[in-house]
Amino acid sequence: MDQIAGYIILLQDIYFYMILIYVLMSWLPSVKESFVGEFLGRMVEPYLRPFRRFIPPIGGVLDISPIVALISLRFVAFGLITVLNFFIG
After folding, report:
1. CA distance 81 to 77
2. What share of the chain is helix, strand, coil (3-state, %, to 5)?
């Protein structure tokens, strides 16, 4: 079970950093239009889209939805580990 939990944490960490890099790349439009930016956009935007729909930008400029998405990603990963521990033991 510890190995499965380790894989879940690893995948969660990788996706966490993908979201973080994508958000930081949004400050530099030329980087966001690169191959890496487009790849990260295809991987991250489907996850961020529901959060952006429900959380409007503060003052029309500051988008805090990625912060909420990152926090919920942590909760989902640890919740999944807890459920697996319950059923698998």
Report:
1. 6
2. 80, 0, 15
Task: Enter the pTM of the model.
Answer: 0.88
Would you give per-residue pLDDT tens digits along the chain (89 residues)? 789 999 999 999 999 999 999 999 988 888 888 899 999 999 999 999 999 999 988 887 888 999 999 999 999 999 999 999 999 87
Q: Which segments of the chain are extended strands (E)?
A: none
Residue 60: other Cβ atoms inside 10 A: 7
Ramachandran area for residue 25 (φ above 0: left; ψ -120 to 50: alpha; else beta): alpha
Exposure of 54 in the CB half-sphere (CA atoms within 13 A) = 7
Inter-helix orientation angle 65-88/2-25, to 10° = 170
Q: What is the widest separation between alpha-carbon atoms in the chain?
A: 49
Phi, psi of 56 (to 5 degrees): -75, 155
